[in-house]
Write a structure and sequence with these properties.
The protein is an all-alpha fold. It has one domain. It has helices spanning about 1-30, 35-50, 55-85, 90-110, 120-130, 135-160, 160-195. α2 (about 35-50) crosses α6 (about 135-160), α3 (about 55-85) crosses α5 and α6 packs across α7. The longest helix is centred in the C-terminal third of the chain and has 35 residues, at about 160-195. The protein is elongated and about 50 Å long.
Amino acid sequence: MLGELVDALRVWADGAGATGVFVVAVLDSSLLALPNATDALIMYLTIQHPALWWYYAAVATAGTVVGSWPLYLLARRGGEVFLERRLSGSRSRAAVNWYRKSAFTAIAVPAFVPPPMPLKIFILLAGATALAPWRVAAALTLGRGTRHALETLLAMWFRDDAARAITEYGVSGIIAMTAAITAGGAAVYWWQRRQPAQ
Protein backbone atom coordinates (compact mmCIF):
# COMPACT_ATOMS: atom_id res chain seq x y z
CA MET A 1 0.00 0.00 0.00
CA LEU A 2 2.73 2.45 1.00
CA GLY A 3 4.82 1.43 -2.01
CA GLU A 4 1.87 2.12 -4.32
CA LEU A 5 1.40 5.55 -2.77
CA VAL A 6 5.09 6.38 -3.23
CA ASP A 7 4.93 5.23 -6.85
CA ALA A 8 1.82 7.34 -7.45
CA LEU A 9 3.54 10.40 -5.94
CA ARG A 10 6.56 9.83 -8.17
CA VAL A 11 4.36 9.64 -11.26
CA TRP A 12 2.60 12.85 -10.20
CA ALA A 13 5.91 14.62 -9.54
CA ASP A 14 7.29 13.60 -12.93
CA GLY A 15 4.21 14.97 -14.64
CA ALA A 16 3.80 18.11 -12.54
CA GLY A 17 7.43 19.26 -12.78
CA ALA A 18 8.14 22.91 -11.98
CA THR A 19 4.44 23.79 -12.05
CA GLY A 20 3.81 21.29 -9.28
CA VAL A 21 6.73 22.72 -7.31
CA PHE A 22 5.25 26.21 -7.53
CA VAL A 23 1.75 25.07 -6.51
CA VAL A 24 3.01 23.03 -3.54
CA ALA A 25 5.23 25.90 -2.36
CA VAL A 26 2.34 28.39 -2.59
CA LEU A 27 -0.02 26.10 -0.66
CA ASP A 28 2.58 25.32 2.01
CA SER A 29 3.35 29.01 2.56
CA SER A 30 -0.27 30.17 2.72
CA LEU A 31 -3.08 28.49 4.61
CA LEU A 32 -2.01 24.84 4.43
CA ALA A 33 0.88 23.12 6.15
CA LEU A 34 2.82 20.65 3.99
CA PRO A 35 6.06 20.21 5.96
CA ASN A 36 9.03 19.40 3.72
CA ALA A 37 6.81 18.63 0.72
CA THR A 38 8.45 21.29 -1.44
CA ASP A 39 11.92 20.26 -0.31
CA ALA A 40 11.31 16.60 -1.13
CA LEU A 41 9.78 17.48 -4.49
CA ILE A 42 12.64 19.68 -5.71
CA MET A 43 15.26 17.18 -4.54
CA TYR A 44 13.46 14.33 -6.30
CA LEU A 45 13.10 16.33 -9.52
CA THR A 46 16.73 17.43 -9.39
CA ILE A 47 17.86 13.82 -9.07
CA GLN A 48 15.85 13.11 -12.23
CA HIS A 49 16.96 16.27 -14.09
CA PRO A 50 20.24 17.53 -12.55
CA ALA A 51 20.79 20.38 -15.02
CA LEU A 52 17.60 22.06 -13.80
CA TRP A 53 18.64 22.28 -10.14
CA TRP A 54 18.69 26.10 -10.22
CA TYR A 55 15.29 26.27 -11.90
CA TYR A 56 13.56 24.08 -9.31
CA ALA A 57 15.15 26.06 -6.49
CA ALA A 58 14.06 29.37 -8.04
CA VAL A 59 10.49 28.21 -8.70
CA ALA A 60 10.13 26.86 -5.15
CA THR A 61 11.42 30.13 -3.71
CA ALA A 62 9.03 32.16 -5.87
CA GLY A 63 6.16 29.97 -4.70
CA THR A 64 7.08 30.65 -1.07
CA VAL A 65 7.11 34.41 -1.65
CA VAL A 66 3.78 34.38 -3.50
CA GLY A 67 2.14 32.05 -0.99
CA SER A 68 3.17 34.26 1.93
CA TRP A 69 1.36 37.35 0.61
CA PRO A 70 -2.16 36.41 1.78
CA LEU A 71 -0.93 36.08 5.39
CA TYR A 72 1.06 39.30 5.13
CA LEU A 73 -1.88 41.25 3.70
CA LEU A 74 -4.32 39.78 6.23
CA ALA A 75 -2.16 40.88 9.15
CA ARG A 76 -1.36 44.24 7.57
CA ARG A 77 -5.05 45.04 7.19
CA GLY A 78 -5.59 44.35 10.88
CA GLY A 79 -2.42 46.16 11.99
CA GLU A 80 -1.25 45.85 15.58
CA VAL A 81 -4.85 45.18 16.64
CA PHE A 82 -4.36 41.82 14.91
CA LEU A 83 -1.57 41.02 17.38
CA GLU A 84 -3.34 42.35 20.45
CA ARG A 85 -6.20 39.91 19.87
CA ARG A 86 -3.72 37.01 20.03
CA LEU A 87 -1.27 38.29 22.64
CA SER A 88 -1.72 40.09 25.93
CA GLY A 89 -0.92 43.81 25.94
CA SER A 90 2.61 43.57 27.37
CA ARG A 91 3.50 40.51 25.31
CA SER A 92 2.19 42.20 22.17
CA ARG A 93 4.28 45.32 22.74
CA ALA A 94 7.39 43.27 23.53
CA ALA A 95 6.92 41.15 20.39
CA VAL A 96 6.43 44.21 18.19
CA ASN A 97 9.43 46.04 19.66
CA TRP A 98 11.69 43.02 19.25
CA TYR A 99 10.44 42.35 15.75
CA ARG A 100 10.97 45.90 14.53
CA LYS A 101 14.64 45.68 15.55
CA SER A 102 15.36 42.38 13.80
CA ALA A 103 12.57 41.85 11.26
CA PHE A 104 14.74 40.90 8.28
CA THR A 105 16.69 38.26 10.21
CA ALA A 106 13.52 37.07 11.94
CA ILE A 107 12.10 36.14 8.53
CA ALA A 108 15.26 34.95 6.75
CA VAL A 109 16.37 32.50 9.47
CA PRO A 110 13.01 30.67 9.88
CA ALA A 111 12.73 30.57 6.08
CA PHE A 112 16.05 28.71 5.98
CA VAL A 113 15.64 26.39 8.97
CA PRO A 114 13.39 23.32 8.48
CA PRO A 115 10.19 22.54 10.45
CA PRO A 116 9.24 22.70 13.26
CA MET A 117 10.72 26.21 13.06
CA PRO A 118 7.63 28.36 12.34
CA LEU A 119 7.63 30.84 9.48
CA LYS A 120 4.01 31.94 9.22
CA ILE A 121 4.02 33.75 12.57
CA PHE A 122 6.89 35.94 11.38
CA ILE A 123 5.04 36.75 8.16
CA LEU A 124 2.02 37.74 10.25
CA LEU A 125 4.26 39.93 12.41
CA ALA A 126 5.65 41.54 9.25
CA GLY A 127 2.15 42.47 8.14
CA ALA A 128 1.00 43.63 11.56
CA THR A 129 4.04 45.89 11.93
CA ALA A 130 3.73 47.16 8.32
CA LEU A 131 7.19 45.96 7.34
CA ALA A 132 7.91 47.04 3.75
CA PRO A 133 6.80 44.35 1.27
CA TRP A 134 10.15 44.40 -0.55
CA ARG A 135 11.94 43.64 2.73
CA VAL A 136 9.65 40.68 3.37
CA ALA A 137 10.21 39.38 -0.16
CA ALA A 138 13.98 39.90 0.10
CA ALA A 139 14.21 38.08 3.45
CA LEU A 140 12.12 35.17 2.17
CA THR A 141 14.19 34.98 -1.00
CA LEU A 142 17.45 34.97 0.93
CA GLY A 143 16.40 32.39 3.51
CA ARG A 144 14.31 30.00 1.45
CA GLY A 145 16.33 30.54 -1.72
CA THR A 146 19.55 29.57 0.07
CA ARG A 147 17.91 26.49 1.54
CA HIS A 148 16.44 25.32 -1.76
CA ALA A 149 19.64 26.04 -3.69
CA LEU A 150 21.67 23.96 -1.23
CA GLU A 151 19.15 21.13 -1.36
CA THR A 152 19.10 20.95 -5.14
CA LEU A 153 22.90 21.29 -5.38
CA LEU A 154 23.31 18.36 -2.98
CA ALA A 155 20.77 16.36 -4.98
CA MET A 156 22.64 17.17 -8.22
CA TRP A 157 26.10 16.40 -6.83
CA PHE A 158 25.25 13.17 -5.05
CA ARG A 159 22.16 11.93 -6.90
CA ASP A 160 21.96 8.21 -5.89
CA ASP A 161 23.61 8.89 -2.54
CA ALA A 162 21.17 11.77 -1.98
CA ALA A 163 18.23 9.49 -2.70
CA ARG A 164 19.54 6.94 -0.18
CA ALA A 165 20.13 9.69 2.40
CA ILE A 166 16.55 10.93 2.00
CA THR A 167 15.28 7.37 2.50
CA GLU A 168 17.47 6.85 5.59
CA TYR A 169 17.28 10.25 7.31
CA GLY A 170 14.17 11.85 5.80
CA VAL A 171 13.94 15.30 4.24
CA SER A 172 14.00 17.02 7.64
CA GLY A 173 17.26 15.29 8.49
CA ILE A 174 18.85 16.37 5.21
CA ILE A 175 17.69 19.98 5.67
CA ALA A 176 18.89 20.00 9.29
CA MET A 177 22.32 18.73 8.23
CA THR A 178 22.45 21.33 5.45
CA ALA A 179 21.50 24.07 7.91
CA ALA A 180 24.14 22.89 10.39
CA ILE A 181 26.86 22.81 7.71
CA THR A 182 25.87 26.27 6.49
CA ALA A 183 25.77 27.68 10.02
CA GLY A 184 29.16 26.15 10.76
CA GLY A 185 30.64 27.64 7.60
CA ALA A 186 29.17 31.04 8.38
CA ALA A 187 30.54 30.89 11.94
CA VAL A 188 34.04 30.04 10.68
CA TYR A 189 33.87 32.85 8.13
CA TRP A 190 32.71 35.34 10.78
CA TRP A 191 35.42 34.20 13.22
CA GLN A 192 38.14 34.59 10.57
CA ARG A 193 36.91 38.05 9.69
CA ARG A 194 37.12 39.05 13.37
CA GLN A 195 40.75 38.01 13.67
CA PRO A 196 43.32 40.81 13.48
CA ALA A 197 45.43 40.90 10.34
CA GLN A 198 48.84 39.29 10.78
